[in-house]
Amino acid sequence: MRQQLLLRPLEFETDQEVLNDVREQITSGAFSPRAALVKPQCSPGEQSRFDMAKAAIARYGEPGMTVLRHLHNHGKLAFGTYNPPLPTGFNGARTREMLSLLVNEQLVTVNITDRRMGEYTYEIAPGMISFMDELLYA
């Protein structure tokens, strides 16, 4: 939870009185700037998904990271008759192969959007979205 220092400017006549009040709030514990910087604890489920994603990213290295970043930036990639925009240095087959591996790791979901045309749409798994920035860009 974010904490805010409460200043009451109408109660003070001089800047020194304001500074004294701020010091008093900090020393009394009424305001703790460091408390606002503490990262909240995550649930066991969130921690499990985070660890699973971190292990999968480590397992597939830079190619996996490149494909995940690309997917994260685009939101969805639909493969069918034509390829969507591909990550730099990847062709359609290599991108789909990596996406299939990431589907097996539960980082990515795939939906058959048009069975007749063989169109598949990939996107980051909903349970993984919340910490993708931390994993992909840290």
How would you describe the overall organization of this protein?
This protein has 138 residues and is α+β, with helices and mostly antiparallel strands. The chain has two domains: 1-38, no CATH class; 44-137, Arc Repressor Mutant, subunit A (Orthogonal Bundle). It is 46% helix and 12% strand. It is built from four helices and three strands; from the N terminus they run H-H-E-H-E-E-H. It has helices at residues 15-28, 44-74, 92-104, 132-137, and strands at residues 76-79, 108-114, 119-124. A three-stranded antiparallel sheet has the order 1-3-2, covered by helices on one side. Strand 2 and strand 3 form a beta hairpin. It starts with 14 loop residues before the first helix and ends with a helix. The model has no long low-confidence stretch (mean pLDDT 85).
Average predicted local confidence, pLDDT: 85
The helix count comes to: 4
Overall number of structural domains: 2
Oligomerization state: single chain
- How do the strands line up in the largest sheet? 1-3-2
Task: Enumerate the spans where pLDDT stays under 50 for 5 or more consecutive residues.
Answer: none
How many beta-strand segments?
A: 3
Question: How much strand content do the residues show?
Answer: 5-15%
CATH class of the largest domain: Mainly Alpha
CATH architecture of the largest domain: Orthogonal Bundle
Sketch the topology as an H/E string, one letter per element.
HHEHEEH
CATH topology of the largest domain: Arc Repressor Mutant, subunit A
Helix and strand content put the structural class at alpha+beta
Query: Termini distance?
Result: 23 Å
Q: How would you sum up the global shape?
A: elongated
Largest sheet: 3 strands, antiparallel
Radius of gyration using CA atoms only: 24 Å
